[in-house]
Amino acid sequence: MPHPFHVTARCTETRARTGRLTLVHGTVDTPVFMPVGTLGTVKALAPEDLAAAGAQIILGNTYHLYLRPGCDVIERFSGLHRFMNWDGPILTDSGGFQVFSLAKLTRITEEGASFQSHIDGSRHLLTPEKSIEIQITLDSDILMCLDHCIAYPAERQAAREALEITTRWAERCRNTWQERSREKNALFGIVQGGMYPDLRQASAEALAAMEFSGYALGGLSVGEPKELMYDVAEASLPLLPDDRPKYIMGVGTPENLVELTARGADMFDCVMPTRNARNGQLFTRRGTLNIANSRHRTDTAPPDPECRCYTCRNYSRAYLRHLYQSREILAYRLNTLHNIHYYIELMAQMRSAIRKGRFEAFRQDFYRARMPAEEA
Question: Which of 49, 147, 266, 269 is labelled catalytic?
């Protein structure tokens, strides 16, 4: 199988593990957090900023890039890498979640997802084959199968129908990938099934039989209680092939990353570090810090005295608060630099702890440092 994934270390007390995933544009060490670059950019940052922060792989979005600027533009650059000047690996999602969450007048049929663009109202049909074709044009290192996303909570019958169509679409995606990409790029299948353990098992078993390069758990972090998300992940992750990377989509908080790594997840993405940065929330070892809080008005300390990011090495909480209160563009950049660095450093610390056989001690230290928690 192409795109080998090798497990390099395991925790003896949890399911946490480290691994190495070889892709066309580079090698990724796991567990890994992937910054989200929806429109071909991680908001407020340049690719050089991401590289300096230690980002190994980033995300692009099939739905958004297909609608704007369009595949004809990106094709002129032989893919998204040259278009956005990022030479590392890129994962693109299938577009299924955006059709579910953003598009108007969506209709799901066996053929695919028919939808109206949220930009200009134009009609489109996203089939499994077309989703893969778009991602091949983007030259993604990791392509995702088109899946049928459903809301939470979902009735059992709706969850069953969604996983069944997702499974059939996955086979069509795989066929197109083999024919068009010749397996040069990796392809991940997406497990669905709502919050029903037996449906998740059926989905995982069906996808595992298709021999994908890796596997993702979709339909989590969609409004369900945190403990339910953990329970579903704990039951589902062991069902996936051990020699493939396991990706939990759209997750999440620093606590989520620690807990799901402990349950055996290898890959994560989330808009939280960038979106929260633009809303004035910074992640630190002691918890979250709201930079708009009046207590920071005269504070000469950096956001996190233990952090070595560009923001913490050069700027005070007082200055960051001033920028944010003034709605200066620099506020979003400096806050985002810090949050992305925090997330990437958190993953590096977990990889180191797993290799040293002290992941469980790391997890306890992680929570101990957050007590008492910083401001909400």
Answer: 269
Range(s) for CATH 3.20.20.105 in the chain? 7-241
Question: What's the confidence (pLDDT) of residue 150?
Answer: 87
* Residue of 93, 139, 147, 304 with catalytic role: 93
Q: How confident is the model at residue 9 (pLDDT cuts 50, 70, 90)?
A: very high
Beta strands in the chain (DSSP E): 5-10, 17-23, 26-30, 32-35, 58-61, 90-93, 104-108, 113-116, 123-126, 142-144, 186-191, 214-217, 246-248, 267-270, 281-284, 287-290
Q: What is the mean pLDDT of residues 294-319?
A: 98
In the annotation, is 269 catalytic? yes
Residue 277 pLDDT:
98
Note if 93 is an active site residue: yes
What is the separation of C-alpha 347 from the centre of its chain, rounded to a whole number of angstroms? 13
- pLDDT value of position 356: 98
Residue 29 is given by DSSP the state E
Domain 7-241 CATH class label: alpha beta
User: How confident is the prediction for the chain on average, in pLDDT?
Assistant: 95
* Measured distance CA(339)–CA(344) in Å, rounded: 9
- pTM (whole model) above 0.85: yes
254-258 own/partner pairs: CB under 8 Å, 24+ apart: 254/283, 254/342, 254/343, 254/346, 254/366, 256/221, 256/226, 256/229, 257/31, 257/33, 257/343, 257/346, 257/347, 257/350, 258/346, 258/350, 258/363, 258/366
Helices (H), 177-225: 197-208
